[in-house]
Amino acid sequence: MTQPATAAHKDAPTSAAKSAGEQGGSRRSGPRWDVRTLSLLGVLAVLVAVGGITAPDEFLATSNLQLVLTQASVIGVVTVGMTFVITSGGIDLSVGAIVALASVWATTVATQEFGFAGILFTAVIVGVGCGLVNGLLIAYGRMVPFIATLAMLASARGLALQITDGSTQIVSVESVLDLGARDSYILGIPPLVLIFAAVTVIGWLVLNRTTFGRRTVAVGGNAEAARLAGIDVRRQRLYLYLLSGLCCGIAAFMLIVLAGSGQNTNGNLYELDAIAAAIIGGTLLSGGRGTIIGSVLGVLVFTTITNIFALNNLETAVQQIAKGAIIVAAVLVQRRSLHGDT
Amino acid sequence: MAPQPPLLTMSGITKSFPGVRALDGVDLEVQAGEVHCLLGQNGAGKSTLIKVLAGAHQPDSGEITWRSEPVTLGSPIAAMRLGIATIYQELDLIEGLSVAENVFLGHEPTSAGFVVRGSASRTATAELLERLGHSEIEPSRLVGELSAAQQQIVSMARALSHEVRLIVMDEPSAALDPEEVDNLFRIVGDLTADGVAVIYISHRLEEIRRIGDRVTVLKEGRSVAGGLPAKSTPTHEVVALMTGRNVEYVFPERPEAGFAAQREPVLKVERLSRRGEFAPIDLELRPGEIVGLAGLVGSGRSEILETIYGARKPDEGRVLVDGAPLRPGSVRAAVSAGIGLAPEERKAQGLLMLESVSSNVSISTLSRFARAGWLDRRTERAATHKAVRELSLRPDNPDAAIRTLSGGNQQKAVLARWLLRGCKVLLLDEPTRGVDIGARAELYAVIRRLADEGLAVLLVSSEVPEVLGLADRVLVLREGSVVHTADARELDEHRVLDLVMEGSLTP
Amino acid sequence: MPRTPATSRRALLFGTAAVSAGALLTACTSNEPKDQEQAADNAAPVADDKPGKAVTVGFAGPQADHGWLNAINSNAKSRAKKYSDVTLEITEGSNDTAQQIGQVQTLINKKVDVLVILPADGKALTQVGLQAMRAGIPVVNLDRVFASPQAYRCWIGGDNYGMGLNAGHYIGEQLKGKKNAKVVELAGLDNLELTQQRTKGFDDALKNYPNIRKVARQAADFTVESGQAKMAQLLQAQSGFDALWNHDDDQGVGALRAIDQAGRDDFLMVGGAGAKSAMDAIKAGNSVLKATVLYPPTMAASAIDLARALGQGKGVDGLAEFEIPSSLTLYSAVVTKDNVDQYLPTGFI
């Protein structure tokens, strides 16, 4: 070869390819701080600045930080599960309904008799059970995820309504209520936030450091290639919806702690919030790429916006408009950065 | 050729993308009524050039003259208005619309300016299809129901539905059977007789010799030779221009005939069949040998491979590895028994295009690098790196994104996956599709080396010389049945073609 | 027509349980007749507990996904059970307009004698109300009003503006004499008209008290979860205020939880609708919740009474009128510790 090739897509070794190799080698460990994640961090920084300027006394208070993180916790845990499902090329529209069902099932008079453990166990089991049904329908019943989870949404909401008859089930188990009280903070961190942090860390490790995570990405990136590479795609799908259900069960327990009650209207529109947070975080809706860190940042961005608007006493309508604008802006940034990659 | 002004002149065309200079000074001159062939390896700039010509890309610099007038091809519509039509390699048809709707998409015959006259477009489409020798295609059928070859005809009909003076065809013969190719060439002949110019892109030199008038060769974004006579320029000269070195269509040396006959077969296929796809087939594969399946598109070649692999469930028959029968219809059973597949559609069936080389190579071996589900990424990377090196995959970097690799290197990544897994039987479906000439030789050498190391290889290819040159034994298929089995050295291309078309040996 | 004995006429239309309806009567009639015997002599025949002509009442309501709506259903059912001459045809509740229209049409086809309709959306169900009236079936329109008065024979419902007004007046009186008093409003679903009315009534009442200023308003959506979330934000935003007006006791459960979590007790809270949990808290007196403004679900029981009277062609006791009024707006009483025992039986779960 007389001319050096311009890019790495030549068969012969080139200097460009070699240097790409060296770069690749040096950044192979640790989370990838790509453009999307950085841009989201930028958005968050801007929001913090806006909050600090418009409501300096309230926004930067420790109690407000605790509040924002607490409010992000429940939907945050749901979003971690959703991120796995979307990464695998699926969708789970039933998360809000599962949270509702798990939260009312775990707060019936009969369940409350078993105390803290009874409530926690019931919430988790109901979540996992719903996830199992979703997974079986999708993986082995060959239903489209959109339809299967839509059906679960309808029936879980219906069942939740049937259990409660529309009434609010107040929790009277003190140990559960105490978990949401101020004096149970550990080093100033609310227990719910600790649960959220734990789920996030475990979620990140599972997605990035385990065979399960790698297979999830493979199934989402190219299900046919994954199947032909010898991966049990169906079993993987089953596990993924189970995982999402498990996250919903945990979130339901957290919501019970937070609201001190179970109600069939719980988890209203969680599916949309979780999908939106995952997408602006950088998880591809078509599957094959997912980021837990991005999803968590997405949740924090939305929660911070709500907080700033409330501190400045702005209307709900304005909040919703801002939320829509942020989704559009984030997706535009993603598209640009994706094109930049190519 | 008469000294009349050329139909199209492009001079000094350059075009850069972020990080890549795709065109670096291309000159091209096309006369009305000629077939002008464009040759070049993958990445030489052919696709970018025709996209500039189609108005899909804007050149950074350079001049385009059309019928002696300087023009700017600002958009696909502008190009179409001038009479330039392009038939892309990836067919750009809408599967959910009918043939006629596709042909007249964007310029539907209308009443009152907006009411589509369906019958008018169907009639016109039928005429176009008849002109193309395919009156059997119903204008009202959905494009998604047509075969690849038929879809290509529809694409061509769409091009001809405009007032066309120049048609660009990007590898039109890639998805076609020999008889379809003949029909294509007849159409090209008709067009040029009417004074239409054709820019023809193909990897197959023999096609260029058959229909081409002149050749322009591209290399690394530059036109290195223009207007060579297509019929008389020697092959080695063309190859030398394309590659910058003198590479022949080289196959690695084969062991002597019958060398493997004493070995125990590793793969046995007994009376395997699928209704409507292939008749019961028997097959034995011994370690170290490469067996080729030759046949037309639709002769059941890929289906046989995929059924052996468990990706399709057989109606009857069974597959044995080392004497043990496999659970039918289970890819996982086949993989654990030691079978690997390099599928036909590499991007759609073989690779995770968003992932790194390493992830693509290790995907079938993940549990080996995991303890209780946790991946040891260091060991994984070291192992994939080793496999990648053994196949001299470029770049020598397991972290490179697979989508940045050339076709040949992507194929090597698939082979590395099975090398890493340590499989005994390798099923190769069109292993050199989309791989350019220089890289092919390297791939052939790798495949032969894997066989020499004890692998049994079953090869499917629509390029007969490839099967004959690489395989030890050849099974010839026609309409789902094996019509002939022979040592590869006893066959030649004409005989195979005769077999697949007629099904009987003629002297 | 049998003469109606005076003794039973006290129970009549609105029943002992329907305390709020009693409040309506006291509010509407300044001079409740003391001498029942005399009143009966010159009045039209009025409905009473005695079995009369058998009446089939069709009842169509929205999906009971909220404690108040659930109470509406149970009030209607238990009231109908009380009368041996009333058969209740109750449909599966639905929030889907089209589905509810279908349900009402089914009831029309079944030729029920009277219809009680609580529409999911008043405007959208007006047509089917008109259909029923044209078919000769009198319609009692419950709470959410139809767009045309021709679509119902009688409307009975709560007073959202009055709720806000009474909540505002109660807070105004409690904070009388306090300088620069601040109040905060936790509203319900903002895209419902009733939320706007409750806010307007509240604001109008506050105009009478120049010492009070509304410093913040956030809208929740009638759920416990949103009540907790929005209240937590409000508490963060407002470090000190004197009173809170919360539109809905269900979301109030969440609001109280947030107040509890923030450890705040420096203000008084007024709720809305009249949930049992709220009344229990008022009675216990150990939280910031000091009062709740009623939006009585007993209106469903009253609607059954009205339907029965319409079906039997009788009037309302206690009024001189021959006919049942075409509209009854219920009074939004303020429930405080002083009168909570009286209202506790009407509290919904």
Walkthrough of the structure:
Chain B: GO terms for molecular function: ATP binding; ATP hydrolysis activity. Chain B: Keywords: ATP-binding, Cell membrane, Membrane, Nucleotide-binding, Repeat, Translocase, Transport. Chain B: This is Sugar ABC transporter ATP-binding protein. Chain B: One of its GO terms (cellular component) is plasma membrane. Chain B: It is a peripheral membrane protein. The complex is a heterotrimer of chains A (342), B (507) and C (349). By secondary structure, chain A is mostly helical. Chain A contains 16 helices and two strands. Chain A has a single domain, classed as ABC transporter involved in vitamin B12 uptake, BtuC (Orthogonal Bundle). Chain A has a two-stranded antiparallel sheet. The longest helix of chain A has 27 residues. Chain B is of the alpha/beta class and 507 residues long. Chain B contains 17 helices and 24 strands. The radius of gyration of chain B is 25 Å and the shape is globular. By secondary structure, chain C is α/β, with parallel strands linked by helices. Chain C folds into two domains: 188 residues, 3-Layer(aba) Sandwich (Rossmann fold), CATH 3.40.50.2300; 135 residues, Response regulator (Rossmann fold). Chain C contains twelve helices and twelve strands. In chain C, helix 3 packs parallel to helix 11. Chains in contact: A-B, A-C. The interface between A and B is large, with 46 and 55 residues.
Record the SSE blueprint.
The complex is a heterotrimer of chains A (342), B (507) and C (349).
Chain A (H helix, E strand, L loop, with lengths): L14 H12 L8 H20 L1 H4 L2 H26 L7 H11 L3 H4 L2 H26 L4 H20 L4 E2 L3 H6 L11 H19 L1 H11 L1 H6 L4 H27 L1 E2 L7 H12 L10 H20 L4 H26 L1
Antiparallel strand pairs in A: 1-2
Helix pairs in contact in A: 2-15, 2-16, 4-10, 4-11, 4-13, 4-14, 4-15, 5-7, 5-8, 5-13, 7-8, 7-13, 10-11, 11-13, 14-15, 14-16, 15-16
Chain B lengths: L7 E10 L2 E11 L4 E5 L6 H8 L7 E6 L2 E2 L5 H7 L1 E4 L11 H5 L6 E2 L3 E2 L1 H14 L16 H13 L5 E5 L7 H16 L3 E5 L3 H7 L2 E6 L2 E8 L5 H9 L23 E8 L3 E8 L4 E5 L6 H8 L7 E6 L2 E2 L5 H7 L1 E4 L3 H5 L6 H6 L7 E2 L2 E2 L1 H14 L16 H15 L3 E5 L7 H16 L3 E6 L2 H7 L2 E6 L2 E7 L5 H10 L5
Parallel strand pairs in B: 3-10, 3-11, 6-9, 9-10, 15-22, 15-23, 18-21, 21-22
Antiparallel strand pairs in B: 1-2, 1-4, 4-5, 7-8, 11-12, 13-14, 13-16, 16-17, 19-20, 23-24
Helix pairs in contact in B: 13-14, 14-15
Chain C lengths: L18 H10 L7 H6 L13 E6 L6 H16 L3 E5 L6 H13 L4 E4 L8 H9 L4 E4 L11 E4 L2 H15 L6 E7 L5 H14 L5 E8 L4 H14 L5 E4 L2 H14 L5 E6 L2 H9 L4 E6 L4 H14 L14 E3 L4 E3 L3 H4 L6
Parallel strand pairs in C: 1-2, 1-3, 3-4, 4-5, 5-11, 6-7, 6-8, 8-9, 9-10
Antiparallel strand pairs in C: 10-12
